[in-house]
Design goal:
This protein is an alpha+beta fold and 208 residues long. Helix content is 27%, strand content 39%. It folds into 3 domains: 64 residues, SH3 type barrels (Roll), CATH 2.30.30; 77 residues, SH3 Domains (SH3 type barrels); 52 residues. The protein contains 3 helices and 15 strands. The strands form 4 sheets. A 6-stranded antiparallel sheet has the order 13-12-11-8-14-15. A 5-stranded antiparallel sheet has the order 6-5-4-1-7, with no helix packed on it. The protein has a two-stranded antiparallel ribbon with strand order 2-3. The longest helix has 24 residues. It is flat and about 70 Å long.
Length: 208
C-alpha cells in the first residue's frame, strides 16, 4: 500500500519522536507503507520513500492512503511527458496495463492533463487517457462480462421456468451472481484519467 503526504512528514530512525530524521516527505510525496506499530501515542508507520530511504512516521503525520487511486493504463499506449503540455519532452511511452497512481489534474491552455507517479518516476498524461482498476484489464474485463451474462441468463431462465423450479434460493443465488458480475465489471471498466483524478480529489478533501 502507498501513502501520500498532505504536509511535510519527517521519517525517523526509531519509534521515538526524539530519534534522528532519515528523510522528509514533501507535500504530495508518495511512500510505500511496509509496517505499522501501535504505541501509547498511536500508530507509527514505517515508510519507504521514492529514494528507498526507510523511516518511521509519527501517529499525527498528515498521511492518507492512495491504494484506491492505483490505476492501470487501458489505452493501447500513451506518451508520458515531462510537463502538462503537448509540446513537452516525452519521458517514455506507457503501454497497456502499465501501473501508476493518479496524483492531480490541471487545465492549461484549453487542455486537461493528469500527473501520474510510478514509484520514483512520474510525469503527465492527457486527461482523455483511458484508465481502469483491476489486476488484469483483459482477463478481468472478460471474466466480469461472462459472470454478469451468466447471472442474468440464469435469472431469466428462472423467471421463465418458475412453475417447474423451486425458485426462492435459485433466484437469490442467480441475482447475487449478476450483482457480483456487475460490480466486477464496474471495477475493470475504462474511464477518463481526468474524471477518476477529480473524483479521487473530492473524496480526499481536495479541490478539482
Amino acid at each position: 500500500m502507498r501513502v501520500r503526504a498532505d504536509g511535510p512528514v519527517e521519517l525517523r530512525t526509531r519509534i521515538d519522536p526524539r530519534s534522528g530524521v532519515v528523510a522528509t516527505l514533501p507535500v504530495g510525496g508518495l511512500a510505500h507503507l511496509v509496517e505499522k506499530k501501535r504505541t501509547a501515542e498511536g500508530v507509527w508507520r514505517r515508510l519507504v520513500d521514492a529514494q528507498g530511504r526507510r523511516g518511521w512516521a509519527p501517529p499525527n503525520a498528515p498521511l492518507h492512503d492512495v491504494a484506491e487511486n492505483d490505476m492501470k493504463l487501458a489505452s493501447s499506449a500513451v506518451e508520458l511527458r515531462d510537463a502538462p503540455a503537448s509540446s513537452a519532452p516525452v519521458l517514455r511511452t506507457l503501454r497497456r496495463g502499465a501501473p501508476f497512481a493518479l496524483i492531480e489534474v490541471v487545465e492549461l491552455a484549453g487542455e486537461t492533463w493528469v500527473r501520474v507517479e510510478m514509484g520514483a518516476k512520474g510525469g503527465w498524461i492527457p486527461g482523455e487517457t483511458r484508465v481502469a482498476r483491476g489486476n488484469s484489464l483483459q482477463i478481468g474485463f472478460v471474466a466480469s462480462c461472462l459472470l454478469f451474462a451468466c447471472g442474468v441468463t440464469m435469472l431469466v431462465l428462472e423467471l421463465v421456468l418458475a412453475r417447474f423450479v423451486i425458485g426462492g434460493i435459485v433466484t437469490i443465488a442467480t441475482g447475487g451472481i449478476a450483482a457480483i458480475g456487475a460490480a466486477s465489471l464496474w471495477e475493470t471498466w475504462p474511464f477518463r484519467a481526468s474524471s477518476v483524478a477529480r473524483r479521487y480529489a473530492r473524496s480526499s478533501g481536495g479541490g478539482d
